[in-house]
């Protein structure tokens, strides 16, 4: 079962200064149009090549456009022992509430 996090919960955590790891798995051209401030960009197709950059001791929030690719990233990482959550609705839901932000 993949844990889910709502945009409001993520926004509140970031706003309050909580140390959160956000990984955006969209493609370069999508990220160029805006991403959650502070997020790390690792395209889904490259995720397994960057495992050494992802800390297994903390929880990570996976983000894509609508939630599909981030769900796949969650499945990959969960299978390798990572702690993850999926952003419900992805950047579509985030931008509807908070607009575009850049990292």
UniProtKB/TrEMBL annotation:
InterPro entries: GlpE_sulfurtransferase, Rhodanese-like_dom, Rhodanese-like_dom_sf. SMART domains: RHOD (SM00450). Residues 16-103 form the Rhodanese domain. SUPFAM superfamilies: Rhodanese/Cell cycle control phosphatase. It comes from the Bacteria. This is Rhodanese-like domain-containing protein.
